[in-house]
Amino acid sequence: MLRKYADSIDVSQYSDVKCPACKGKRLLYGDDCIACHGEGYMPAGQADQLDASLYKMVKCPSCKGKSKTKNYECRDCNGEGELLKYYVDKYSL
């Protein structure tokens, strides 16, 4: 029985690169980076598919950046007035 194997395998997509969201610093706005789970690195293939714009702070759509809704601390942004675009898009706030 004749078996055929690939002459070479491109493993570059599996090598670790700095996380594009936290730039390898492991933290994103004071908390563990949610893109790399606080590791600072991720496989190159995963980093290539990551949309770094989702990890920028934007004005909270619920309180419109005012930190309060109806005189109560905004539940969505915990009274911060802003949150990651990732959460706005993920939960359609």
Automatic annotation (TrEMBL):
SUPFAM superfamilies reported for this sequence: DnaJ/Hsp40 cysteine-rich domain (SSF57938)
Protein name (Swiss-Prot/TrEMBL): DnaJ central domain-containing protein
Q: Which organism is it from?
A: Azotobacter beijerinckii
Gene3D superfamilies registered for this protein in UniProt: 6.20.20.10
